[in-house]
Amino acid sequence: MLQVKQVSVAFNQHKIIQNISFSLPYGHKLAILGPNGSGKTTLLRAIDHLIDYQGSIKLGGKEVREMKRAEIAGQIGLLKQMSTSYFPYTVKELVMQGRYRRLKGQFFGTVDRTDKEFVEKCLVATGFQDMQDRRIDSLSGGQLQRAFLAKTLAQDPKIILLDEPTNHLDIYYQLELLDYLNDWMADGEHAVIGVFHDINLALSFSKEMLFLKAGQIVNQGQFNQIVSGQFLEHVFNTDVLGYLRRNEKLWQTIK
Ligand SMILES: Nc1ncnc2c1ncn2[C@@H]1O[C@H](COP(=O)(O)OP(=O)(O)OP(=O)(O)O)[C@@H](O)[C@H]1O
């Protein structure tokens, strides 16, 4: 179980997120939504302890800031927003880095057969069995995103944090990713937090939602209990429901 209690993060004394509290048991998914700059990425980075936080973030009862990096890597996998420049690793080398992360204080040359087999499994699961020697700077945006997912899976974490995981994926791979995560969680021993901009996709991912605005939680809970047209307009400063309904009408006009 992930327990986030009264968490705040400040940069240069400027508070970015404030008093965030929620918990996520294994076997559950949580979609985080909110406008640009509302603190979604900052919250994920705090959970992964890439930045300092005030308050408490516990995994399996243990405070994240007291855990060593390799221990955190065995618990949390963060799939970041994509950037545009990368070292020219091959797909397999990139995915293997996910495995290195959880090997305590060790680096290249220390993986064993089990690690290699695990990496192979992740490459197959993400459709890279025939492309593992391709350099990642030759991949398309969507392929690259899948390669980074494979790297995150290779960490074999308890919780995956997805920061806008589908922004480079076509519809096929968007749905594939959501299906894959459902399978991955089916044993009830893993959890996923996903940050989404597309509210429809967020809904396909999870009915359990948390909305952030200006660094604070506006509301959290089940979609049909907390979301209304007025609520979405308050969070995003625009008529989201009107937009969705206009599109829905258009979809009804085609076969
Ligand atoms: N290292 C940093 N130093 C100073 N300010 C930062 C830093 N990282 C983020 N911020 C600021 O914190 C705020 C929240 O940023 P964050 O990336 O968490 O928002 P977000 O909700 O993920 O936004 P988006 O939807 O645009 O990805 C922004 O105003 C951003 O400029």
TrEMBL record:
Ion transport is among the record's keywords: no
GO MF, one annotated term: ATP binding
SMART domains with a match to the protein in the record: AAA (SM00382)
Keyword ATP-binding among record annotations: yes
Record key words, sorted: ATP-binding, Nucleotide-binding, Translocase, Transport
Gene3D superfamilies, alphabetized: P-loop containing nucleotide triphosphate hydrolases
CDD domains in UniProt: ABC_Iron-Siderophores_B12_Hemin (cd03214)
Domain ABC transporter: 2-239
Protein name: Iron ABC transporter ATP-binding protein
Taxonomic lineage of the native organism: Bacteria, Bacillati, Bacillota, Bacilli, Lactobacillales
